[in-house]
Amino acid sequence: MQTVTSKDGTKIAYDKVGQGPAVILVAGAMGTRSFGSPELADLLAKDFTVYNYDRRGRGGSTDTQPFSVDREVEDIDALIDVAGGEAYVYGISSGACLAMEVAAVLGNKVKKLAMYEAPYDEAEGAAETWKKYRSDLDEAIAADRRGDAVVLFMKLVGVPEVAITGMKNSPMWPGLEALAPTLRYDAAAMGDDRSVPADRAAKVTAQTLVMDGGASLQPMPFMHTSAEKLAKAMPNAERQTVEGQGHDVDSNVLAPVLIEFFSREK
Question: CATH code for 2-120+196-263?
Fold first, then answer.
């Protein structure tokens, strides 16, 4: 593990593997550099230098209050500087929302952007559900009811009650509770009403690959709809549906897609 100091003094922990152009991996909610990302990092490492980091408040990274999305952009900016001043950026889920904001703010420092299933949702009733979730989440975190915060998130994303009960009784639960405060950070990255930020997307000038999973279409049709709208708003975007994959995309399937996109000259 290595660390870099962000603009506000927060220490950002990261692992660096491979050789070649820099790729920064941006995790989604409850994701850390030790969970989900190492396999993808290893698969990309034959072609790229991969920076797999802990977002602030997670794993080996520290945190500094008050939080804002701008601070998380500064964290990635610090990583890009360590990587030589420019990098490819890949984000998944709410991490894709953050990665898009990074590309909008940092401009040419992001050579290319890849996004997988940024979970914007403009379906009927989604905005009201989202606002209630954010209010309840803020209340739970303020009262240090971390377990309740995790349950709120799990229910939002459709985890069955029986599975939530199983997780509560498993060794993984304390780790999830430790990450609970960062759920507010993911919510902030997705916006006040969870709508597709088309105006913000239009500011992304980097070549961008906007992806969804073919297996997500039935349970979460908004993933496909939002990906379509994002790609149309971006001046240099292309679309791809990764067939057979859901929100929890298989790294062995995703890695070749990313390698092809990041390696392409144009």
Answer: 3.40.50.1820
| Block residue for tokens 């660096």 | 16
- Return the domain boundaries, the chain: 2-120+196-263, 126-187
Residue 2 and residue 139: Cα distance in Å, rounded? 34
Percent of the chain with pLDDT over 70: 99
Q: Which two tokens stand for residue 108?
A: 């040419």
Residue 131: how many other CB atoms lie within 10 Å: 13
Distance CA 63, CA 9 (A): 9
Q: Which of 105, 53, 51, 110 is nearest to 74 (CA)?
A: 105
The answer, as to whether pTM is greater than 0.90, is yes
**H helices present in the chain, as ranges:** 37-44, 69-82, 94-106, 126-142, 146-156, 161-168, 173-179, 183-190, 198-201, 221-233, 251-263
